[in-house]
Amino acid sequence: MEKYSQILSLGSGIAPFFPIPTQPSGVYLPFHVFLFLIRFPILLTVTLSYFLVLQWLPLGPLGKKACLWMILGVPSIWWIDLQIDGVKKGSLAKHHPTRLPQPFSLIASSLTSPIDALYLAAIFDPIFTASYPSTALVTQISLFQALLRALSYPKQDPPRNAHLTTLRNILQEHPNRVVVVFPECTTTNGRGILPFSPSLLTAPPTAKIFPVSLRYTPGDITTPIPGTYLSFLWTLLSKPTHCIRVRIAESVYNDSASATHIQEVLQSEDVGSSSDTLLGTDDGESKGLQEKSVLNRVAEALARLGRVKRVGLGVQEKKQFVDAWKVHRRR
Fold this sequence. Notes:
Elements: H1 2-9, H2 29-52, H3 60-73, E1 79-84, H4 92-99, E2 105-109, H5 114-124, E3 127-132, E4 135-141, H6 143-149, H7 167-173, E5 178-181, E6 192-193, E7 208-217, H8 229-238, E8 243-248, E9 252-253, H9 258-268, H10 271-274, H11 289-306, E10 309-310, H12 315-330
């Protein structure tokens, strides 16, 4: 395992897939157990009530957001440290129309925890998508699916029966909604930005792309290892409070040639058969300079907002790491 950790850290010295250890409870263990036992049934009740009943009722966006804030409130995720590029504190109202994601815009978000999707849903009521390293096409998913993906095994390719589409088509079908993209395709511990999926290249050139970085204090509620449901719930519910550090960069536009090319491909072929045409490559040889520039601008913005570096480790490397991690844990 030590040899493998050295491979992960080679070059940048960053290991983005290692779980962040939780601070030992020590003498506060009884208090943490008490918080967990009190909060868990409340969280379970509120969550099941929303996803099984309330989300299907005509509550409207404000009603749904209120329900989601109730879910966030159970583990005391109240303190939100929000900063926006080019906006001074206290002057957000003056810049609201241009500095925040609005209908017919995209959010390119970091992905470290199930809380990412929950917070974005509580603020923007967006449409969520799933991106894959091997294709520029995406699948539209629900909030619940977005939560589960943050705890799921990383996927290099979309499922065979997945309904693939482009970000352009989703925005055209829902012009009054914000669309969320997780271009890294899998979770990290928040200490690095992974190579991007080419899915952002299917965004229309007129849509704003807002890089959004979400980080947590303490950082142990990140879920870089899939399947850690119990440890995530314990860490989330046993701590008195959690803070979210939200940073929103200035918008980026997809001014690459592929913004037009991909749409022409989809108009000439059905989406399922064109997925092979829109495959990305690990070395990026199929991307032109304009395409690389768009992805680089968003990735650099996320790295700057999160005060981290970009790394060359992607989904394939994470799959290898997770397999090695499971073997190590069984010993």
